């Protein structure tokens, strides 16, 4: 948190980065949870990719979005084993 407070003024993207589409993240996450869901890619170009390089230059680093989702699910007791090959 100290690194965030010490950032110079400006506009920053804060959050997890990914190079996967929302469809891929959703599909992978549902598989990791052991859910048999039919996830359809209805808008293949609709993604929420963020470039956090400006914050990263100042030492503010977030995990990749899928890893963050898995950690959250594990912490909430939704999954016990994380298969990183999902």
Structural description of this entry:
This protein is mostly helical and 86 residues long. The chain has one domain. Helices cover 35% and strands 0% of the residues. It has 4 helices and no strands. The chain is flat and about 45 Å long.
Which secondary-structure class do the elements indicate?
Answer: mainly alpha
Radius of gyration: 15 Å
User: Proportion of β residues?
Assistant: under 5%
**Terminal-residue CA separation:** 31 Å
The main sheet comes to:
none
Number of helices: 4
Q: Quick one: how many beta strands?
A: 0
**pLDDT < 50 stretches:** none
Shape: flat
Query: What's the helical proportion of residues?
Result: 25-40%
**What's the order of the H and E elements?**
HHHH
Mean pLDDT: 79
What number of structural domains do the residues give?
A: 1
A few lines on this structure:
The protein is mainly α.
Summary keywords:
mainly alpha, 86 residues, single chain, 4 helices
How are the SSEs placed, and which strands pair?
Blueprint: H1 2-5, H2 22-32, H3 53-56, H4 65-75
